[in-house]
Amino acid sequence: MYPVINKNLKKTITAGIILFSAVSIFAQTENRNWNGKKCAVVLTYDDALNIHLDKVIPMLDSYQLKGTFYLIGSSPVVSQRISEWRTAAKKGHELGNHTLNHPCDGSLSGRDFVTSETDLSKYTVVRAVNEIRITNTLLKAIDGKDERTFAYPCGDLTIRDTLYYNFIKNDFLAARGVSSGYSALKKVDFSNVNSFFQNGSTAEQMIAQVEEAEKKGSFIVFLFHGVGGEHALNIDLEEHRKLLEYLKKRKKDIWTAPMVDVAKFIRENKNK
After folding, report:
1. What are the start-end ranges of the H helices in the chain?
2. pTM
3. Cα–Cα distance, 202 to 181 (Å, whole number)
4. Which sequence spans correspond to the domains of the chain?
5. Class at the top of the CATH hierarchy for domain 40-269
6. By its UniProt entry, which CDD domains does this protein fall under (predicted)?
């Protein structure tokens, strides 16, 4: 004979099943703090390279993904291909500010590539601010937009001992740095957003970084230069494609968006 289960016990079991189901549903939907997704990914590309227009943007478009392209205002790839950058912006890609002349601190070791004209250590803060604002004017003439983000050339934050971004922080939603790390939504430093520098990286390595961001309920900013060539800092075009394919397949859980959109989202949700 089977034991008889009384009505109260049945009610207890039923309530337990309902509670377990509710917890399971909650577990599946919790930690979706990034525009309804588990994490956010930002794809950034520095220095206004031909390869960005010729290969990267068409590849992003094919996967329906958007990136941020940090343009150097004086670059011939900007002046000679304005209509193509304008088209990219119309498709949803961000044109970010990477200064007018890409000045880097030539007083640091390993900076033999820095010329006297582009030596940030010889700049005044006023000159740096003026050149950055000139670049903003140029970018607005291309895309018609007022909101955008900034990226420090070479990751250099200061002119001697002065944090020059403090003088232009109201001109941007955020500034991307070069130090890696996963920040909680409420602890993002808009004056120096973490990023993961890529050089010779495989898709497997980059995907692992995305998965770590997802695990931490955070976001990740990728920092690319060359993609398939044109720069000493480079990743293989096929490895880049594999990363995009992964992001496309994981779109239900991963929000891939330009830096300006992610920065705006963080600002709007940071204090909630």
Report:
1. 7-29, 50-51, 57-62, 76-79, 82-90, 125-143, 203-216, 237-249, 259-269
2. 0.89
3. 19
4. 40-269
5. alpha beta
6. CE4_GLA_like_6s
